[in-house]
Amino acid sequence: MNRREFLQCAALISAGATVAPKGWTLSQEQSRYLAARPPYIDQAMPALFTSAQRATVRAMADQIIPQTDTPGALDAGADRFIELMVSDWFNAAEQRHFMVGLAEISERSGGDFAALPPAQQLSLLEALESESTDANWYAPFSTMRVWDDSAPFICQFKELTVLGFTLSEVGATQFLRPNPMGTLNGDLPLGPDDPAYDKESMLRSFAGEASQ
Predict the structure, then answer these.
(1) Is the pLDDT of residue 112 over 90?
(2) Where are the domains of the chain?
(3) Sign for the pseudo-dihedral over CA of 192, 193, 196, 197
(4) Which pLDDT belongs to residue 25?
(5) How confident is the model over 184-209, as a mean pLDDT?
(6) Burial status of residue 105 (CB atoms within 10 A of its CB: 0-12, 13-18, 19 or more)
């Protein structure tokens, strides 16, 4: 199993396989691996972050996806997801990069990011992002990446926050909306007179309802 597959499995285990993006096609090796692993999102937290660092991660995640009329990052447990990913799935170099980023946040906030007023927290995060606009992370069409080792800390943190949120049950069921065009099933057999679109699409649904 390559690193991309391992990171996909990490996300599935941490957030729950029931909310996996339908675009992910798991290999047989990934399927066997996931079948043998119990969910661990509720396990004891690893001894990686200090209590102050956990408070910083929570405050940062809350600023990135705050609770409004829909759940926020903390409602989805994104802060827990972030620590699990950094502890269990990052290599040593990636962990160092992440921890240096946390240390910089602490230094620039006067020692305690979580203690800052929300407006100052947001201002600091916006400043970090503004300083990182030349990073490849912001390049046009830079999507579907699993991980960008060269990305600034703020970009990596945002990526982990969004990933943890959207893969959670809360994010998937209370925030994301279903694709109105249906899903693509590339293995669905077509008859000689069938059009070349998915039988599960909305067009087929409408046609079926109209014929009833």
Answers:
(1) yes
(2) 3-174, 182-212
(3) negative
(4) 59
(5) 52
(6) buried
Looking at residue 105, what is its pLDDT?
A: 95
Q: Which two tokens stand for residue 66?
A: 């705050």
Q: Which residue in this structure is represented by tokens 């909310």? A: 19
∠ CA(68), CA(72), CA(78), 5° rounding?
Answer: 170
Residues 6+ apart with CB under 8 A from 94: 86, 147, 149
3-class secondary structure, 74: coil
The reported pTM is: 0.66
Predicted pLDDT at 121: 96
Mean pLDDT of all residues belonging to the chain: 75
- Residue 99, burial from CB neighbour count under 10 angstroms (0-12, 13-18, 19+): middle
- Give exposure, 61-88, as e/b (b: 16+ Cβ within 10 Å): bbbbbeeeeebbbbbbbbbbbbbbbbee
| Separation of alpha carbons 122 and 109, rounded Å | 11
What average pLDDT does this structure show over 186-191?
65
Model confidence pLDDT, tens digit, residues 157-172: 998 998 888 878 787 7
What's the Cα-to-Cα distance from 67 to each of 42, 103, 155, rounded to whole Å? 22, 26, 21
| 160/79 Cα distance (integer angstroms) | 9
| 84 within 8 A of 14, measured Cβ to Cβ | yes
Q: Are 28 and 4 in contact (CB under 8 A)?
A: no
